[in-house]
Specification:
The structure holds two protein chains of two kinds.
Chain A (H helix, E strand, L loop, with lengths): L4 H6 L28 H6 L12 H4 L28 H15 L3 E5 L4 E6 L9 E5 L21 E13 L2 E5 L3 E3 L2 E5 L2 H5 L6 E9 L7 E2 L2 E12 L5 E17 L13 E2 H4 L13 E9 L8 H23 L4 E12 L4 E9 L7 E3 L11 E2 L8 E3 L1 H5 L3 E3 L11 H5 L2 H8 L4 E10 L3 H17 L4 E5 L6 H13 L5 E5 L17 E3 L19 H16 L12 H10 L15
Parallel strand pairs in A: 4-11, 5-7, 11-13, 15-20, 15-21, 21-22, 22-23
Antiparallel strand pairs in A: 1-2, 2-3, 4-14, 6-7, 8-13, 9-12, 10-11, 16-17, 16-19, 18-20
Chain B lengths: L34 E5 L3 E3 L13 E5 L7 E3 L7 H5 L7 H10 L8 E5 L6 H18 L4 E5 L3 H16 L3 E5 L3 H6 L4 E6 L12 H17 L5 E8 L5
Parallel strand pairs in B: 1-6, 6-7, 7-8, 8-9
Antiparallel strand pairs in B: 2-4, 3-5
Helix pairs in contact in B: 3-4
The chains are: A alpha/beta, B alpha/beta.
GO molecular function, one term (chain A): D-proline reductase activity
Pfam family, one (chain A): Gly_reductase
Organism (chain A): Lachnoanaerobaculum saburreum DSM 3986
């Protein structure tokens, strides 16, 4: 692979190696040389042996080749007509100059006497040398001299809509004869399971059980989902008022009639206290009461699409009964959370792209159901063809995604994750950015379709006129094809991009491209495996903070150093320290597949 | 534009490079070759221990005279319904017997080896499982090895084991539903039918399609000019999950 002039300038002092076979008479340029960033890997793979007689890039540029030379061969004195004389300083000079230019970000906004506002931006990654002339709107004869816009006004917040989330205190949950909420206690009619199970023929039985925080050392079948109890009391998803039960969540577990775990692929059956990362966004919190809804689905349907869906649908029938009670319950409000969809015109326009599973079996998501985190009324992203769908940050924070993806639960985002997604929260709150929206894109099963949906995402990113993108994925393996493709879609349009994923050891990328150079790791397993602790390695507040900072660096032209050649948690913690974040402590799960 | 920047941050995830080429040229006509078929798609005999679906570097020995209805799949990385209908969609054992009968290939070895490559431990497959499978196939006089992956990391594991076989002196091809992975991981040869993961060797019960995919993959073993080349096969199957 040849290199660009920019790469060449960064690597003047590195060894000069031909990327491909080159013939006698060639005048050597960047296009003929291999990227020094790859040398370490190539040496590891036995593809390249560096020679002490090899020349540096700065010594060979412009020289003429005297004989044919094979690919990946160091260029030595005997094969070229001349060696450039260069001092040690030259490279540093160039580098110093580059740095200076990058840091000179100067915005000038002024109004002139010709009825136009003239904006001149000195140098920034995307606006280099840009001049804009904007007409000054005026109704009268004399052009009104508008107030010069100050820097403070750029990025001023305009609220598009508000969502109020009222968190209602729940002290206890009981199973009884009718479903009601009174004095902070939810009672669920025990016999509701008999009606719920009729919602889908593939669901054979349902069982409810209340698990208190003090009693978590109990056996559980694999965790299929953690779902909050939230309901609309005013407006539609993303606006108005939503009530969320505080201190309680539903947990869906499931097996088939033969006792085989649904989601048998890193399933999380075992002792509950050991099988969930309590406190992570998708999980139950330390003090949450858990209502376990255990489903038994039809034999052999666990690894097909309708089976797991049946379990989710039947559980939703039960949750809906509780939602109906919550609507009318005027209990203690422990927290009022105001969420805003805003525009901050003048700030960098960014979107968050979330790649979600879309391959059938249990790899599906329900988008925009009628109730927050619900099932009814939503569309399955597999049925939507996995195409990118854009939601407002408020819609996401109001439970627009119901996740059916909890296979390999350590690296998947459960339903609760989305209603409190740290990247959505972080980007929406950041006064230096303008979060345009959150794109959900499914990961299809077929390679051609992966590329197809990624092309659609590329067009969307382009038309949104973006300054930056953060792309996340869940799981690892085939979804990384799409993930890397998506990063490429942004990268080739010169949109600064940061990728966020679980990779570590087991999930190391299976494909890559030249744009995947600002990447954030989600792993929290000691061995770097996808362990069987639900919600262990996913987007956390710390992951989000690193990703957002990396994106800002990229947009401002501040270097993000290249990754080491192997997963190393020290790199992650070095980044954490730079940002004043707590250390990423890895969990010893004993996983060693 | 005012952005807070922080100097000194480092990217946390590395991007792989394609490993060293391995390539064994086929020197016999296909009709004289002994052809093995391995798979990372989690196929095993019904009476064998199922794979650990969250990651497993062990393998199962499958005698080639095993009736296809005695085989099953244990794999969590994709929708299993196609293989439940017809195991030949991943491991086309019936088609291989037909090709011997037809004289398209010479023979099959007595036994072959299957594994579940999903979430596969790279070093274990590279240093233990792969070389062991390669030695056992070579010892049976195998000339050609065909291989299917299943899910994404299956393709990685499949490619690693296939590379071990190529290294051992057999000519191999990965029949890939996810060709970018096979390519990046350094498969010696790749064929790419338009199929979903889970039916890597063709639509269940579609005998002509399965046969064509195997035949053209074998021809690619014969005709592929150099390391890591892909041939796209003109067969399409869409699985409505």
């Amino acid at each position: 692979m040849s290199i660009t002039k920019e790469t060449l300038e960064k690597h003047l002092k590195d060894p000069a190696i031909f990327c491909c076979r080159r013939e006698k008479g060639l005048v050597i340029s960047a296009a003929d040389l291999e990227d020094p960033g790859l040398f370490e890997d190539m040496q590891d793979a036995g593809l390249l042996t560096l020679s002490p007689d090899g020349l540096r890039i700065e010594q060979v540029i412009g020289a003429t080749l005297l004989k044919d030379v094979e690919a990946l061969t160091p260029i030595t004195r005997d094969v070229i007509d001349r060696v450039n004389e260069v001092g040690e300083e030259k490279a540093h000079e160039i580098k110093a100059k580059e740095e200076k230019e990058v840091k000179e970000v100067k915005n000038v906004v002024e109004s002139g006497g010709d009825g136009m506002i003239h904006i001149e931006i000195g140098k920034a990654e995307k606006f280099e040398g840009l001049k804009l002339c904007v007409p000054v709107f005026s109704q009268g004869n004399a052009p009104a001299a508008p107030e010069a816009k100050s820097d403070e006004k750029l990025g001023e917040k305009t609220v598009i809509r508000q969502l109020l989330k009222k968190h209602i205190k729940i002290k206890d949950v009981k199973l009884g004869k009718e479903t009601k909420i009174k004095d902070g206690v939810i009672t669920i009619d025990k016999s509701i399971v008999e009606r719920a199970v009729k919602e889908d023929g593939l669901c054979k039985s349902l069982e409810l059980e209340v698990i208190h925080p003090s009693n978590r050392h109990i056996y559980t079948e694999t965790i299929m989902d953690i779902c909050p109890i939230a309901t609309k009391v005013e407006g539609e998803l993303g606006q108005g008022v939503t009530k969320v039960a505080d201190g309680v969540v539903f947990m869906l577990t499931g097996v088939d009639e033969d006792g085989v775990q649904v989601h048998e692929f890193g399933s999380s059956e075992g002792y509950l206290d050991e099988k969930m990362f309590f406190g992570h966004p998708g999980c139950a919190d330390e003090n949450d009461i858990i209502i376990r809804c255990h489903a038994v689905i039809q034999r052999l349907s666990g690894m097909t699409r309708p089976g797991p869906f049946a379990a989710h649908k039947c559980q939703d029938y039960i949750i809906q009964a509780v939602r109906e009670q919550l609507k009318d319950y005027d209990g203690e409000v422990v927290r009022e959370e105001v969420c805003e969809d805003v525009r901050r015109v003048g700030n960098p326009r960014v979107v968050l792209v979330k790649e979600i599973m879309g391959q059938g079996a249990m790899h599906d998501n329900i988008i925009c159901p009628l109730e927050p985190c619900g099932v009814l009324g939503g569309q399955k992203n597999v049925d939507c063809g996995n195409v990118p769908i854009i939601l407002t940050p408020n819609q996401v924070r109001d439970g627009s995604i119901h996740a059916l993806t909890c296979i390999g639960p350590a690296t998947k985002e459960m339903t609760r994750h989305y209603i409190r997604e740290p990247l959505v929260e972080g980007l929406a709150a950041d006064s230096e950015l303008d979060l345009i929206g959150v794109v959900f894109i499914g990961s299809p099963q077929v390679n051609d379709e992966k590329l197809w949906v990624s092309e659609r995402l590329g067009s969307m990113l382009e038309t949104l006129d973006l300054d930056g993108v953060i792309i996340t994925t869940e799981g690892f393996g085939n979804n990384h094809i799409d993930f890397i493709q998506h990063i490429g879609q942004a990268g080739k349009r010169n949109i600064p991009v940061v990728g966020v994923s679980f990779c570590a050891y087991q999930g190391q990328l299976v494909v890559g491209n030249e744009y995947a150079t600002a990447m954030v790791e989600e792993n929290m397993d000691k061995g770097g495996f996808e362990n069987d602790i639900a919600g262990c390695s996913c987007v956390t507040t710390e992951v989000a903070a690193r990703a957002i900072q990396m994106l800002k660096n990229r947009m401002a032209g501040v270097e993000v150093k290249p990754a080491q050649k192997k997963w190393n948690n020290d790199v992650i913690n070095a980044n954490n320290r730079l940002l004043g974040l707590p250390e990423t402590k890895l969990v010893e799960s004993g996983t060693l597949h | 534009m005012r952005l807070t920047t922080v100097e000194g941050m480092q990217s946390e995830i590395f991007v792989p490079v394609t490993p060293k080429p391995v390539f064994t040229e086929l020197k016999k006509p296909l009709s004289e070759c002994k052809v093995a078929f391995i798979t990372a798609g989690g196929i095993h005999k019904k009476d064998q221990k199922p794979f650990n679906t969250s990651g497993d570097f062990s393998y199962r020995t499958i005698p080639f005279d095993t009736p296809s209805d005695q085989l099953m799949v244990t794999h969590g990385g994709f929708d299993n319904s196609d293989i439940n209908k017809d195991v030949n969609a991943m491991f086309p054992i019936d088609r291989l017997h037909e090709l011997v009968k037809e004289g398209f290939i010479g023979s099959l070895p007595e036994e072959t080896y299957t594994f579940m490559g999903g979430g596969g431990n790279v070093e274990k497959f590279m240093n233990e499982t792969g070389p062991e499978i390669a030695r056992k196939l070579k010892a049976q006089g195998v000339d050609i090895v065909l291989c299917t992956g299943g899910c994404g990391t299956c393709h990685r594991s499949a490619t690693i084991v296939t590379r071990c076989c190529e290294q051992e002196g057999m000519s191999c091809v990965v029949i890939a539903a996810l060709p970018p992975i096979a390519r990046q991981q350094g498969a010696p040869r790749i064929t790419a039918p338009h199929v979903p993961i889970g039916s890597n060797a063709g639509e269940p019960n579609n005998i002509p399609q399965q046969t064509a995919i195997i035949k053209e993959s074998l021809e690619w073993v014969r005709d592929c000019p150099s390391f890591n080349q892909t041939k796209v096969l003109p067969y399409e199957y869409r699985h409505n999950v």
